[in-house]
């Protein structure tokens, strides 16, 4: 009771001073105070329940160190008259905050709903990898997820003409405030893929005689061949050159995709396995399906390949995160010799 009386007395004195001769100075002080930031330790949640009096909100803000004075917040809010417009709910604050930021967030109803699921899909991620991740996060059972991504009725319902959803899951972070079903997750991921397609992409593909599924397949090869954005148009040129010449692409990432239980070691017998339809050393043309998720830059590279005359590439002996590109076999072989001399392994550096 004493605390309430003390608080009421402070409020009365402040309002009295405001109404008296120091009104203008008090208002200027409040304006400065409302823009003065306070550091927030970690993440702080504020609950504004329906019918909570202004005094209760001010006390909560002070208790959680979001305002320096509960009284000043109350007076400032009384002057602005915004409190009745505040929307009930939970609000999250972090980093730093000012009374003005608090007022705006509560007035705009920027409530916080905690995430129940967040799934990261990196570039080049395969459906198998994603299904394992989703099963671990209880989005669905492994067997059901594996069946769903190949279910033709479901695949077609999402606008995908391929044999599965491979390649059509856009690499991104997917966040949910309500636990999705497996169907809802894939619907959101495939929708994101189509939203990220470059403008006029399919009509531009038609001009070069490519379908979207062929483009996604080729883009997945590019995605897994290089981490360097600048190299993607060059890899695209090499692939186009090989396709035009009806020569094997020689992309080991595709071979690996076709090995059911790949253990991280690409063996000689794997390179000679004709039964692996993804063996691009033996089978000409693009592999049967995409081999992983693709980014917009890899898709764009198909429409914007370099036109230098590149036909080969190999890992750079000086920087293994880059490749060196060649026009002739003699030039390419010389670069391969340099790589071998440097003691590096050129496995996976396709195009040789």
SSE arrangement:
Elements: H1 2-19, H2 23-34, E1 38-48, H3 54-63, H4 70-80, E2 89-97, H5 99-107, E3 117-120, H6 127-136, H7 142-148, H8 152-157, E4 173-176, H9 182-196, H10 201-207, H11 212-225, H12 232-244, H13 252-257, H14 268-271, H15 296-303, E5 312-315, E6 323-326, H16 329-341
Antiparallel strand pairs: 1-2, 3-4, 5-6
Helix pairs in contact: 3-4, 11-12, 11-15, 12-15
Low-confidence runs of at least 5 consecutive residues = 1-7, 344-352
| Beta-strand share of residues | 5-15%
Largest sheet: 2 strands, antiparallel
Number of helices: 16
The topology string of helices and strands comes to HHEHHEHEHHHEHHHHHHHEEH
- N-end to C-end Cα span: 85 Å
**Strand ordering within the main sheet:** 1-2
Helical residue percent? 40-55%
Average per-residue pLDDT, rounded, comes to 89
What gross morphology would you assign?
elongated
Using brief descriptors, characterize the structure shown:
single chain; 352 residues; mainly alpha; Dna Ligase, domain 1; two-stranded antiparallel sheet; 6 strands
Task: Tell me about this structure.
The protein is mainly alpha-helical. It folds into three domains: 2-107, Dna Ligase, domain 1 (2-Layer Sandwich); 117-196, no CATH class; 201-341, no CATH class. It is built from 16 helices and six strands. It has helices at 2-19, 23-34, 54-63, 70-80, 99-107, 127-136, 142-148, 152-157, 182-196, 201-207, 212-225, 232-244, 252-257, 268-271, 296-303, 329-341, and strands spanning 38-48, 89-97, 117-120, 173-176, 312-315, 323-326. A two-stranded antiparallel ribbon has the order 1-2. A two-stranded antiparallel sheet has the order 3-4. It has a two-stranded antiparallel ribbon with strand order 5-6. Helix 11 (212-225) crosses helix 15 (296-303). The radius of gyration is 30 Å and the shape is elongated. Mean pLDDT is 89; it is low at 1-7 and 344-352.
